[in-house]
Amino acid sequence: MQIWVDADACPSVIKDILYRAAERKQLLLTLVANQLLRTPPSKYIKSLKVGAGFDVADNEIVRLCQAGDLVITADIPLAAEVIAKGGFVLTPRGERLTQDNIGERLNLRDFMDTLRSSGTQTGGPPPLHQRDRMAFANALDKILASLPP
Q: What is the pLDDT of residue 112?
């Protein structure tokens, strides 16, 4: 398993959790973004800068990830493509997206997009709280614990 991070929108506290997990489990962790990212010195952690543009980082993650890889993202269309390739998806809030719930999430996302395009103010996501960080860390540990030693 390799871990891919949709890093442009991933909170720093979540990246810190991922850095520690990559070192502990000795897994490759790649942060994909359209800007240069600083990562801790490690043979397991790297960043990949892609060109600017709509969905460029998402498309690169889909291209590079393989079945069994883990992708960290809140982007629902990206999550759907990763799941279709046989990958695992975890949001920065610790929600596991699967074949069973991705269709519902895509429908909700499309509905909210329709509302926004009609001028309705829907607001953004709530701030990340300590409970979200704990939920993420616990969900990540659960996924990583299922890996062979």
A: 65
